[in-house]
Amino acid sequence: MKLNKKILSLILAVLMIAVSLTAGMIAWAGNPVAINAVNFPDENFRTIVLMECDEDGDGYLSDDEISGVTLFSVTGYLYDLDEDAEIESIQGIEYFTNLKTLRCGGIGLKSLDVSKLTGLTWLDCMGNDLETLDVSRNTALRILNCQSNELTALDVSMLPNLVNLSCNINKLTALNVAQNTKLETLSVHQNELTELNLANNTALTALHCSKNHLQELDLSSNTLLENVTSNRIGEQTISGTATESSGTIFVTIPFTNSRRIISTSLDEENDLGLIGYQSGSFVTESYEKLRNGIDYEYNTGLDSAEPMTVHIDVSRDFFIVSYYTNENKTTLLDKQIVYRGENATEPTLSSAPQCKSFVRWSESATDVQADMDIYAIWKDDHIFRIVDFGDNTITMACLNGCGTEQNFNFADLVGAELGDSNYNEAFDLNADGFINGRDLAMLKAHQF
Question: pTM of the prediction?
Answer without folding.
Answer: 0.75
